[in-house]
Amino acid sequence: MPRTQRSFTLSTLALAVLAASGQVYAATATVPVSCKLIGADRLFDGNEVQFNKSVLVVGDKVKAVGDFASLSGQCATRYNLGDATIMPGFIESHAHVTFQNVSKDKILEHGITTVQDTGGPLLPPQGGNGSLRLLSTGPILQAQGGYPLNVFTPDDTGGGYDKVGLAIAANATESQVRAVVQNLAAGGASAIKIALETGGEAGAPWMMSHGHGEVPAAPWPILSQQQVAWIVSEAHNQGKRVLAHVGENRGFEIAYAAGVDMLAHMPCAAVDANLLHSAVHDGMEFTSTIDTLASCGDGLYQNAHVVGHVYQEHAGEGLAFPLVYGSEIAHDNVPWGINGEELHLMLHLGSGDAIDFGDVLNVLRSATSAAAARLATGIPGLGTLSANAPADLIAVKGNALERFKLLEYPDMVMSGGKLVVNKFSPTR
Question: Containing H/E element for 279?
């Protein structure tokens, strides 16, 4: 997303007038439009934890991270938070903000500074400077008569770029399928999302009525293996990743065989453990949404346990942590902001026999730096507190490294250098 650099005000200081020569010597200095220095006992920079460090924000960017005393001379507005934790603003990788008309301001106030809207009207990137940064995938690509249009807008069989879904006919040609992906990419889609949902999973939210009468009888039609392969190929040509809504084994088989990059959910029904093992080992990733889909029951937790087990088994071989934080903001049963329970579940299901500090860092990275890397926004430093990164940060009183719940109620939220929430007083 293009970032607009703030202008700087030039102030001219007359230093000396030498009467003998009649010459006037003057100097000019750049004075930041605004600056803030924020320090705390603990600072997670998106990758590692640092102790007794501070973030210097100038305009809408992070200028430096360092010692409070050494940076204090560069800014008059200073906050020394003491027993508190500073982190980058969280990135929600799976939301339905626009489609469900959820308050962006409310989400931002609760610690999410960037969301990926996965299913809804295609919108260009927006926000990020005192408002919620929103990245859109546009509508979910689906089979004609399938999910999500069959559940959410059953009278609209075709959908469109302004809908939650866009149907691809069973007889669509390769060029037609690729053109849809090209249109999404040209419209600013952050990724391409597809549905491989056959329906019928017990406890799944999509099997519950959404005010449109009875849920259609399963199985539901889904995209073919060939269509998914075309979508993945063209998305990668366009520099976009492919996310797949998958709830059970058949959809998972198609997604894995076609090279889908990430699942938009942990599958609701149990997936063949050997197949799941192979997919994780080959680099498939999973947006967590475990808390959101908790009503799915044992199959969901079994899948998450296998994913975590495979990671622990192969992490020494360079396998990346396969879980990406996502709480599917818009559901009424999860917070419209940071979800402490989702973080808790990711930690326990993604760890080995014992939880160590590295596991905690994996979870926090999955909502900050690792999430930003997977979004491939082109915004340098997004999801981190590092020089020239966007000044998106949160702070909470106490130790959020030990108590994720604290993150649901941040005491400070900054977006693009602007304080949205602040319960701290400046240091005198």
Answer: helix 273-281
Q: What pLDDT, on a 0 to 100 scale, did the predictor assign at position 9?
A: 30
Q: Provide, for the chain, the percentages of residues in helix, strand and coil under a 3-state DSSP scheme, each rounded to the nearest 5.
A: 30, 25, 45
First to last CA, the chain: 37
Spell out the alpha helix ranges (H) of 159-268: 174-186, 225-237, 249-258
Count CA atoms closer than 13 A to 113's CA, side-chain side.
Answer: 33
Residue 174 CB coordination number (10 Å): 13
Give DSSP secondary structure letters for 370-385.
HHHHHHT---TTTTS-
User: At which residue do the structure tokens 């308050």 appear?
Assistant: 103
Angle at 99 between CA 95 and CA 103, to 5 degrees: 70
Rg (CA), the chain: 24
Residues of the chain with pLDDT under 70: 1-33, 210-212
Q: Residue 205's pLDDT is what?
A: 92
What pTM was computed for the model?
0.91
Give pLDDT tens digits for 86-102. 999 999 999 999 999 99
Can you tell me the distance from the alpha carbon of 376 to that of 76, in angstroms, rounded to the nearest whole number?
35
